[in-house]
Amino acid sequence: MIQKIILSVGAIFFIFLSKSVAGEISPIVNLKSCLLVLGGTLISAFLSFSTETIKDLIHSLGRVFRNEKSDYKMLLKQIENLARLRRLHGIKALESAVDKIENVFLRKGIEMVIDGYDRYEIHNTLEKELELYFTNKQSQKNVLSTMAKVAPVFGFVGTIIGLINVLNQIGEPSQLGQGMSIALLTTLYGLLLSNFIFSPLAKKLSEYTQADALLLTIVLEGIIDICEEKNSKSIFYRLQSYLEGYRQIHTDITESPVPSKTKNLSPLKKLLPGKQSA
Fold it and tell me: Domains of the chain: which residue ranges?
């Protein structure tokens, strides 16, 4: 709710700022300037990245703005129940429960346990799959980062076009104003799109990717423990301590760094942003 309020206030501020700066400039000139920057930025993105990556980015941003959050507590309980079934009733009980698992990654891991893979094969296979998943997420983030970089460039291109127009019509003073408007507005729109839209979206996607890394790393650890038939309660409390440790680090990220007790949890720690650890 708070995020939606902040987003609405930001959008109103953005519109008000554009309106106050543009003043009495023709809407057509405004539209031309905006389309020049936005169109050039989008074309640059489509030329730099595959269509599939951009489609995946749109899907990921939709998930971000729908504010879909994973229920960690329910996931930990599910892993605990699967571990209990494995210890008390064996593989057959897991076979009957696998169809009820909603998390795709967890389901795949349990299927590998049922098929008799050892912990090392399971770990290597799922870790490789996670690396591919986060590589795709990084590509999506790179799309937004690229757009944030090139938007001001196209704003500068618009400035050059506007100045050329001014020089071409220097003998007609009445036309100089429109040329200067395009020249200045394109630079403004380039900076606004870069700093108010593309860069914040890249940061937002990075935050959700970090949350995904935590979730999938916890699932991977749980699958390995189930494969080794460890006690279900010990699995639950261990994974819960990892989650609480991550939240504490995330809360205190602006303070001096404290060595994490869970530094060996994630085989994908190099994929997590900054110094944070799952």
Answer: 27-271
